[in-house]
Design brief:
The structure is a single chain. The protein is α+β, with helices and mostly antiparallel strands. It has one domain. Helix content is 45%, strand content 16%. A hairpin with a 5-residue loop joins strand 2 and strand 3. 11% of the residues are buried. Bound molecules: zinc ion.
Length: 83
Protein backbone atom coordinates (compact mmCIF):
# COMPACT_ATOMS: atom_id res chain seq x y z
CA UNK A 1 0.00 0.00 0.00
CA UNK A 2 1.70 3.27 -1.11
CA UNK A 3 1.94 6.12 1.36
CA UNK A 4 -0.36 8.86 0.09
CA UNK A 5 1.33 11.71 1.95
CA UNK A 6 4.77 10.84 0.61
CA UNK A 7 3.40 10.53 -2.93
CA UNK A 8 1.93 14.05 -2.86
CA UNK A 9 5.16 15.54 -1.48
CA UNK A 10 7.11 13.78 -4.16
CA UNK A 11 4.91 15.21 -6.91
CA UNK A 12 5.31 18.74 -5.61
CA UNK A 13 9.09 18.42 -5.75
CA UNK A 14 9.09 17.12 -9.30
CA UNK A 15 6.63 19.36 -11.11
CA UNK A 16 8.38 19.16 -14.48
CA UNK A 17 8.62 15.41 -14.20
CA UNK A 18 4.84 15.17 -14.42
CA UNK A 19 4.83 16.55 -17.96
CA UNK A 20 7.25 13.92 -19.14
CA UNK A 21 5.28 11.21 -17.44
CA UNK A 22 1.79 12.20 -18.60
CA UNK A 23 2.40 14.19 -21.78
CA UNK A 24 -0.52 15.59 -23.77
CA UNK A 25 -3.92 14.90 -22.15
CA UNK A 26 -5.45 14.29 -25.58
CA UNK A 27 -2.99 12.28 -27.67
CA UNK A 28 -0.51 11.29 -24.94
CA UNK A 29 2.40 12.74 -26.89
CA UNK A 30 5.42 13.59 -24.78
CA UNK A 31 6.43 16.40 -27.13
CA UNK A 32 5.10 19.47 -25.37
CA UNK A 33 6.42 22.99 -25.91
CA UNK A 34 6.19 25.34 -22.92
CA UNK A 35 5.19 28.99 -23.35
CA UNK A 36 5.60 31.08 -20.20
CA UNK A 37 4.37 34.54 -19.28
CA UNK A 38 4.43 36.53 -16.05
CA UNK A 39 0.89 35.39 -15.33
CA UNK A 40 1.38 31.72 -16.08
CA UNK A 41 2.33 29.20 -18.71
CA UNK A 42 0.79 27.11 -21.47
CA UNK A 43 1.95 23.87 -23.00
CA UNK A 44 1.42 23.21 -26.68
CA UNK A 45 1.40 19.68 -28.00
CA UNK A 46 3.47 19.31 -31.16
CA UNK A 47 1.43 16.25 -32.23
CA UNK A 48 -2.20 17.44 -32.04
CA UNK A 49 -1.53 21.19 -31.78
CA UNK A 50 -3.73 21.70 -28.72
CA UNK A 51 -2.71 24.05 -25.92
CA UNK A 52 -3.26 23.52 -22.21
CA UNK A 53 -2.80 25.69 -19.15
CA UNK A 54 0.19 24.49 -17.19
CA UNK A 55 -1.78 24.97 -14.00
CA UNK A 56 -4.43 22.52 -15.20
CA UNK A 57 -1.87 19.85 -16.03
CA UNK A 58 -0.38 20.25 -12.57
CA UNK A 59 -3.61 20.32 -10.58
CA UNK A 60 -6.04 18.06 -12.47
CA UNK A 61 -5.18 14.40 -12.12
CA UNK A 62 -7.66 13.02 -14.66
CA UNK A 63 -6.54 14.01 -18.21
CA UNK A 64 -10.13 13.70 -19.49
CA UNK A 65 -11.09 16.59 -17.19
CA UNK A 66 -8.47 18.94 -18.67
CA UNK A 67 -9.86 21.42 -21.20
CA UNK A 68 -7.76 22.87 -24.00
CA UNK A 69 -7.16 26.63 -23.96
CA UNK A 70 -9.51 26.91 -26.95
CA UNK A 71 -12.28 25.04 -25.13
CA UNK A 72 -11.87 27.22 -22.06
CA UNK A 73 -12.13 30.42 -24.14
CA UNK A 74 -15.26 29.11 -25.89
CA UNK A 75 -16.76 28.29 -22.51
CA UNK A 76 -16.03 31.79 -21.15
CA UNK A 77 -17.45 33.40 -24.30
CA UNK A 78 -20.66 31.34 -24.10
CA UNK A 79 -21.01 32.28 -20.44
CA UNK A 80 -20.59 35.99 -21.21
CA UNK A 81 -23.07 35.90 -24.10
CA UNK A 82 -25.76 34.31 -21.97
CA UNK A 83 -25.38 37.06 -19.40
ZN1 LIG B 1 -1.56 16.14 -28.20
Amino acid sequence: MPNRKNKLGHMENHRDFRFEKFGCPRCKSKKMIRFAWDSGAELECTECGERFDEEDLLTIDDPSNILTVKEKLAFIRAFKESD
